[in-house]
Amino acid sequence: MTDTARDNVLWAWTLIDALAASGVVHAVISPGSRSTPLALACLRHPGIIASIQVDERSAAFFALGLAKARHQPVVLVCTSGSAPAHWYPAVIEADMGGTPLILLSADRPPELRGCGANQATDQNNLFGSHVRAFHELPCADGDPDMLRWLRALAAQAVDQGCWPLAGPVHLNVPLREPLLPDRPWPALQAAPVAAVCYPVMTLSPDAAHSLAGELSGGRGLIVCGAGVFSSEFPAALMDLAHRLACPVLADPLANLRFGAHRNNTVLSRYDAFLRAADAPRPDWVLRFGAMPVSKSLQRFLDGLAGVPQLLVDCGGRWLDPLHRASRLLRADPAALCRQLSELVERAAPPSWLAAFKAAEHRAAQLAEPEPPPEAEVVRTLIDLLPAGATLFCGNSMAIRDLDAYSGCGDKALRIAGNRGASGIDGNVSTALGLAAAGATPLVALLGDLAFYHDMNGLAAARGLDAVFVVLNNGGGGIFEYLPQAGLEEFERGWLTPLELDFSHAAALYGLSYAKVDHGAGFCAALAVALKGGAHLVEVSIDRANSVARHRAYWEAAGENMF
Amino acid sequence: MTDTARDNVLWAWTLIDALAASGVVHAVISPGSRSTPLALACLRHPGIIASIQVDERSAAFFALGLAKARHQPVVLVCTSGSAPAHWYPAVIEADMGGTPLILLSADRPPELRGCGANQATDQNNLFGSHVRAFHELPCADGDPDMLRWLRALAAQAVDQGCWPLAGPVHLNVPLREPLLPDRPWPALQAAPVAAVCYPVMTLSPDAAHSLAGELSGGRGLIVCGAGVFSSEFPAALMDLAHRLACPVLADPLANLRFGAHRNNTVLSRYDAFLRAADAPRPDWVLRFGAMPVSKSLQRFLDGLAGVPQLLVDCGGRWLDPLHRASRLLRADPAALCRQLSELVERAAPPSWLAAFKAAEHRAAQLAEPEPPPEAEVVRTLIDLLPAGATLFCGNSMAIRDLDAYSGCGDKALRIAGNRGASGIDGNVSTALGLAAAGATPLVALLGDLAFYHDMNGLAAARGLDAVFVVLNNGGGGIFEYLPQAGLEEFERGWLTPLELDFSHAAALYGLSYAKVDHGAGFCAALAVALKGGAHLVEVSIDRANSVARHRAYWEAAGENMF
């Protein structure tokens, strides 16, 4: 006779054990009844670190942060009904940002679907094109052959979530009642799964030789945006850039600006100096990762009709929003850099890199003596963060100000962000997920709307070392720079000031709270907050002043930088 | 030459104007750049009442509440990227609950998709099987024939969202830059659209005659669950039940328990009296709407093998989770009741209804003298709410306690809830949407987890008359009644107490706050709160006491009710 409850426990354990054997360490569980066997297996498995979060949306972004911390797949568990739909924004971010997530949604069995049963909805292909794979499981089955298949499927799901492009994988898990057995429980054991070996993808010797010849001696630009790069990539790229003597325009999320790997080719202030009419035209552009956040860099690249633009990508994506790519190089970035470094024969004329370094220097001076207030906040952050710290940067203005004003440095800082879909959603939880995975000290730099959007996520801050720096410019300040600012409906429909006193949010979630100016006040509050615990540091930004100084800075950058 | 900006404005205006001409009154907008022409058309159209909400998830549930208030389709507008994904939980609730929503997601044009452009993701069929229809629009086109088509499509979308089963319809709206023109703006005018006439669906005379014959004189049970019924339905059903002299077991969300329409056939305490071993077996069951929330009613119906169970539904759904239906009657509930009333020849024996009314009376006595604390809260609510008030009831324990303890009454009270997917999500915003549509005074009865889940939604409370009554039993108290309560991981993995001081949430959003006991304290606080404004009344529930009294009540109901 079928023992449904026993099969449920065995089935869920086998799934979780096989995921753990495939490299999963973290699981984030939202409470529910139907998901009980899955949640219990996560809570009891010795190889799984389980977190609990009531709000599935925050749970998913928290899992995203955990997964980003070490590029390991993280499991999400929730109950049936609308619950898994709350994962969708984080699923889209994971899809576009290349972050591995294993989504385990509990479901009603087939006989309770489409007939008005409680909390039963159509969870088949719930996330459409935004997952690498979808697997509809059968109901729990205690047959040893079925359990063996389930182990293999779990390993396959992790593989699909990791390669060739990391991302979310959805397993829908129907479970019949009774969900839990009376004692005794079935014996639950750990077992191995098939291991997967991944290739190093390089160009053929001929293609690499030919490419190196094209790059050698040219006045080239290397552009590196956000991406999931291997730990060997920074050094490999630095070596290639050094041999080519070409500048590397490094987006903050490329994680090239800060650290001991950095050599003198890395530049960060191109958002300013590429506004200049005298910015020189390169012979070629070699791009890694996503298109950087800088609008002026994008405009510059868009103006380079006829210049070869080469795009390196091994994940199958076509990251060329300008439609200017002349060649896609399907190769591992670090491996390609090493391959090319060995083949490059001549560097660019020394004046080429020197001109860009001079422009970088001039741009750094431009912000003085009256930088935008956000520039001072960014500088204080970079100065005060200890080596090894992680700075999570929110979207909208926060990432643009970090991009423009961070500069570069030898101190090892990790910069993280959600630039897949670039939403202002889930930023609090993603930051806390990074902190929970040990990426501490962790500072999150967010605008007021982004902070509000994921305020529920603060429930996970308890016991973590995390500092939220909220740039409060009274709403969607980024829209001040767009034509919408001229509309009479601007404040109501676009700026949308929240008029919330965030001290109450801090009190609700047990964070310390300080409201400070962007100068000495912020400096002092940050120094205190970095000593440990969970903190909210709200920086009051005078929006009009900020807009004026940003504009003045950009205007100054428009001329004679080279 | 194509004038993109002018076309954008014309296109968006035409779409919104045609939606307004098709009956849309409310639009809920989340701020963004790409959606600017759509948002602006909503803000400027004289026939549209626009609300702004930063969090798209809360915005969607707020729209759901607006749409529920008068069963009118409500427009949602947001920008591209992960933004529309936040609508998904409300879309699922609207799908399953039969609530019309028109989802307008702005999108990047085709040339910015799949190429790494910022905030561009695959929005095609974003909501999968959970919308009645999906329309991918072309980019804005100023050609008069295209604008004429757009008007027709808007009217068609409203039709798809209203009939035969109301629900969400998604229009994805790609827009090219520049989004806004310089002055002068194009002339924007209102124009009509095709009107749609809907049928009255009745059975054929022969079928109705035969059905009436089957029901006549039988010991029947009428069961009515949640549903979107016409305003004629309560009176029509009461008339039929009177002629048949059969009890109507009315779920609170059937909106039959309270109001002047009610006659002596309506019963509310079946969750208690159907637990009795001596509950009599009916000759037939006639069901309207969804399966009611009561588990004991479900068990009772499941035990009626061989008894004809007839299910009335004109929306194309098959709402029979027990797989006990013997016949589906595809007819309009009110029209069918009127049709049958004219044909019914004999009532049941008087003892039949009398036995059920006696059981109802006994069940009402059972809760004395020590009712569960939630029962007292429910009774106070029913007593103190003025005629015409709306009570939004959250899911999990709140709806079960309302179901068990509300009783019936002549005072007109509207009971609302989200029983499509039955999630604890979006409850705050749905309630506020009802209030914003004029369903005031509005009281929302929610558990602590449901209140927390949608706390961001409180941003819309400003200026509304709304009272949130939060039954705080320290987490997911409903799980106490399930086998999970015996697990050693129970508190951490299922109960999940939040340990949040909600007074800070009230302060954050400008609600008054009172923390009270379930007796006199609640009574006094509710009386004050009902005078107007936005209030949070937190009722502390002793979970152990609550569980013990619920169990004692159910046990007492298990014997000799008939």
UniProtKB/TrEMBL annotation, chains A, B:
Its cofactor is Mg(2+); Mn(2+); thiamine diphosphate. The keyword Transferase applies. Pfam families: TPP_enzyme_C, TPP_enzyme_M_2, TPP_enzyme_N. Residues 15-124 form the Thiamine pyrophosphate enzyme N-terminal TPP-binding domain. GO terms for biological process: menaquinone biosynthetic process. The keyword Manganese applies. This is 2-succinyl-5-enolpyruvyl-6-hydroxy-3-cyclohexene-1-carboxylate synthase. Belongs to the TPP enzyme family. MenD subfamily. The gene is menD. CDD domains: TPP_PYR_MenD (cd07037), TPP_SHCHC_synthase (cd02009).
